[in-house]
Write a structure and sequence with these properties.
This is Methionyl-tRNA synthetase. GO terms for molecular function: ATP binding; methionine-tRNA ligase activity. With 319 residues, the chain is α+β, with helices and mostly antiparallel strands. Among the domains are: 103 residues, Rossmann fold (3-Layer(aba) Sandwich); 47 residues, no CATH class. Helices cover 31% and strands 18% of the residues. The strands form four sheets. Strands 5-4-9-10 form a four-stranded antiparallel beta sheet, with no helix packed on it. A three-stranded parallel beta sheet has the order 1-2-3. The longest helix is centred in the first third of the chain and has 20 residues. The two termini are 16 Å apart.
C-alpha cells in the first residue's frame, strides 16, 4: 500500500490509487472552515474518529485513503475577513496554516490535507459544472434575496441577523440560515426586522438571478443509484433514512450559486454560463441529495490535490 502520511502538512506523500480486487476505502471528515483556531472539541468531534477508523483500516490491510482540508469558500470566510479587516485570501492562507499545524501536532494521519481554493479544486468543480450544463440539468431562475444598499451587495444567509419568526422564540440574533436558540432552519427573508451584519442597516428584498440544479430530472436515476449503492456500500441506517426522507418528499430544484465577492468569483469565471448568473460562484454543497451544508465536491477534490497534475488519478473513474 505504500507509506502512510502520519501528519497534516508533511512534504512527502505516497501516491494512493484504488487497487482492483482489494477493499478500497475512502475516508473523509468534515472540512473545517478557515475562520477559527481548532480546539480540542473540533479534534474529538470531527477528525479524531475518522483518524481512528483510518488507522484500523490500515492495520487490517485495506487500501484506505484519509483525506481532509480547509473549506475556504463561503460566507464564514467572508465574514471573518470583514472582522479582521483583510481579504478572504489572507484569511484562508492564515487559518489553513494554523489548522494544518494543529492537526500535525496531534499526529492526525491524513493521507492528504488540502484546501478548496487550489487550481485543482477549481478545475474539478468547473468540469462537473460544465457537464451539468451540457446535459441541460441546470436552469436559471429569479429568486428574492436581501440586499444592503449601504454595502451595495446581496447578503448571504450568515451576513444577516434578525428576530426569529418561530412562535415563542423571538431570539433577536437569529442568523439568516438558522436560529441558534430554537434550532429552526430559516431563510433570510423570513427574519423579522433583519439587519446587515456588516453595517447594521435594514436590507430590502430584491430579485437576483441564480442557477439551479434540476434534481427532478435526475430523480429516477438517483432512486436507482441509491437503491443499488445503499446495499452494495453498506450505508448506515441514518444515511438511508435521511436520503429516503428527501426522496419521499419529491426532489425539487436546488440553487447551486451564491452572491459572494472577491476571490470567490474566480470559481466559475472560465465556465460558460447564461444570462445574469455568470458572475455567481458555485455553491458546491448544494449538489447533494442531503442538502445545503454537505460538500461532496470539496471532500473528494482534496484527494486529487497531489496527483492531479501528474495524471495519476482520474476523477471520473477512480473514486
Amino acid at each position: 500500500m505504500g507509506d502512510v502520511v502520519t501528519g497534516a502538512g508533511d512534504d512527502q506523500k505516497s501516491v494512493k490509487l484504488p487497487i482492483p480486487g482489494k477493499r478500497n476505502i475512502l475516508i473523509t471528515s468534515a472540512l473545517p472552515y478557515v475562520n477559527n483556531v481548532p480546539h480540542l472539541g473540533n479534534i474529538i468531534g470531527c477528525v479524531l474518529s475518522a483518524d481512528v477508523f483510518a488507522r484500523y483500516c490500515r492495520l487490517r490491510g485495506y487500501n484506505a485513503i484519509y483525506i481532509c482540508g480547509t473549506d475556504e469558500y463561503g460566507t464564514a470566510t467572508e465574514t471573518k475577513a470583514l472582522e479582521e479587516n483583510c481579504t478572504p485570501k489572507e484569511i484562508c492562507d492564515k487559518y489553513h496554516a494554523i489548522h494544518r499545524d494543529v492537526y500535525k501536532w496531534f499526529n492526525i494521519s491524513f493521507d492528504e490535507f488540502g484546501r478548496t481554493s487550489t487550481p485543482q479544486q477549481t478545475e474539478v468543480c468547473q468540469a462537473i459544472f460544465k457537464k451539468l450544463l451540457e446535459n441541460n440539468w441546470l436552469s436559471e431562475n429569479t429568486m428574492q434575496q436581501l440586499y444592503c444598499d449601504t454595502c451595495s451587495k446581496f447578503l448571504a444567509d450568515r451576513l444577516v441577523e434578525g428576530n426569529c419568526p418561530t412562535p415563542g422564540c423571538n431570539y433577536d440574533s437569529a442568523r439568516g440560515d438558522q436560529c441558534e436558540k430554537c434550532g429552526k432552519l430559516l431563510n433570510p427573508t423570513e427574519l423579522i426586522n433583519p439587519r446587515c451584519k456588516v453595517c447594521a442597516t435594514s436590507p430590502r428584498i430584491r430579485d437576483t438571478d441564480h442557477l439551479f440544479l434540476e434534481l427532478p430530472l435526475l430523480e429516477s436515476k438517483l432512486r436507482d443509484y441509491i437503491s443499488t449503492m445503499s446495499v452494495a456500500g453498506s450505508w448506515s441506517q441514518n444515511a438511508i433514512h435521511a436520503t429516503n426522507a428527501w426522496l419521499k418528499e419529491g426532489l425539487r430544484q436546488r440553487c447551486i450559486t451564491r452572491d459572494l465577492s472577491g476571490a470567490f468569483q474566480s470559481l466559475l469565471r472560465n465556465s460558460r454560463t447564461s444570462g445574469k448568473s455568470g458572475g455567481k460562484i458555485l455553491k458546491s454543497g448544494a449538489i447533494s441529495v442531503y442538502g445545503k451544508g454537505q460538500c461532496p465536491i470539496s471532500h473528494c477534490n482534496v484527494s486529487f490535490y497531489t496527483n492531479w497534475d501528474r495524471g495519476e488519478l482520474d476523477y471520473d473513474e477512480d473514486y
